[in-house]
User: Which sequence fits this backbone?
């Protein structure tokens, strides 16, 4: 590997804003509001802010999610995110990323493409040194017609995989890139 390239961190694509990150009309109002609220917390955390005004607010949010009576496929990973973000400095990046992908899977299965893709990108940003999450975000974005965003994430995934010596991850990322050109 070129030493000059090894010292540069791959550029992280920005999170989508606007309609792509907004709740989809396929979700009932209370569910859409919960997904949107938690996404805002996660985006605030990945951007370096707390995402919520205090730990008490997030603890209460976690409690509401755990006691809710709607789909546990969404509620439970959202509750994990609320719990992790009660201590922004101590949040486990791997757990946050995994919970984001759980929300992604649920949202896409529910027809809520915008939030699903936004949580996929949030997963990749939550654990920025893990190329597999960048690859997943890139693949999902590509599958849903967001080629420019997908290409950015797939390039990042290939660079991260190369840096980590993850040749399978690098090959998958490059194969996706070639498929998108």
Assistant:
């Amino acid at each position: 590997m070129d030493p000059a390239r090894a010292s540069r961190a791959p550029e992280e694509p920005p999170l989508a804003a606007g309609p792509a990150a907004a709740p989809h009309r396929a979700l009932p109002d209370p569910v859409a509001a919960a997904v949107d609220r938690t996404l805002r917390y996660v985006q605030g955390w990945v951007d370096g802010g707390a995402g919520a005004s205090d730990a008490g607010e997030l603890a209460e949010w976690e409690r509401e999610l755990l006691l809710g009576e709607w789909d546990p496929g969404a509620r439970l990973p959202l509750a994990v995110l609320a719990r992790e973000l009660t201590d922004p400095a101590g949040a486990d990046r791997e757990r946050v990323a995994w919970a984001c992908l759980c929300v992604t899977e649920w949202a896409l299965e529910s027809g809520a493409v915008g939030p699903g893709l936004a949580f996929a990108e949030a997963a990749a940003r939550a654990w920025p040194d893990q190329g597999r999450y960048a690859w997943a975000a890139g693949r999902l974005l590509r599958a849903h017609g967001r080629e420019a965003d997908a290409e950015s994430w797939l390039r990042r995934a290939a660079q991260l995989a190369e840096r980590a010596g993850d040749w399978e991850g690098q090959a998958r990322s490059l194969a996706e890139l070639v498929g998108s050109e």
User: Anything to note?
Assistant: The radius of gyration is 16 Å. The CA atoms of residues 58 and 82 lie 6 Å apart. The chain has two domains: 27-115, 129-181. Residues 129-181 form one domain.
